[in-house]
């Protein structure tokens, strides 16, 4: 299914993204699970594991459809994307901090997986 969905979004070429790996939590939100080393997300120095994705290019993506999140995250090489996240007390006035990144070829770009939340 991943190959089919990826082909629909970016064709058969390598996807261009920012090196952000998201996990879909049981509540439907998307949580940063890892950053690809030397990727735009990693190089920004602003995104941390556990941050929750709230918006992409000004559009609300909190609890959005996984395919829509992937489609908005990936794009043409050299194109900018502004992603908004929430984390702890590091908020802007609207509760979201934003990071502007430039898409490029990144191994693992556009990965969105399922996360099973375990009660502690």
UniProtKB/TrEMBL annotation:
SMART domains assigned: PDZ
Domain PDZ: 5-73
Domain of life (superkingdom): Eukaryota
PROSITE patterns found in the cross-reference section: PDZ (PS50106)
InterPro entries the UniProt entry points to: PDZ, PDZ_6, PDZ_sf
Descriptive protein name: PDZ domain-containing protein
């Amino acid at each position: 299914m991943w190959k089919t969905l990826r082909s629909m979004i970016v064709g058969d070429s390598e996807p261009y993204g920012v090196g952000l790996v998201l996990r879909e939590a049981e509540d439907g939100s998307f949580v940063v699970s890892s950053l690809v080393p030397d990727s735009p997300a990693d190089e920004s120095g602003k995104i941390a594991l556990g941050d929750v994705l709230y918006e992409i290019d000004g559009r609300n993506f909190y609890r959005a459809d996984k395919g829509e999140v992937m489609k908005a995250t990936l794009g043409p090489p050299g194109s900018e994307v502004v992603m908004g996240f929430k984390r702890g007390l590091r908020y802007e006035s609207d509760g979201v901090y934003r990071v502007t990144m430039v898409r490029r070829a990144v191994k693992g770009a556009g990965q969105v997986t399922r996360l099973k939340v375990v009660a502690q």
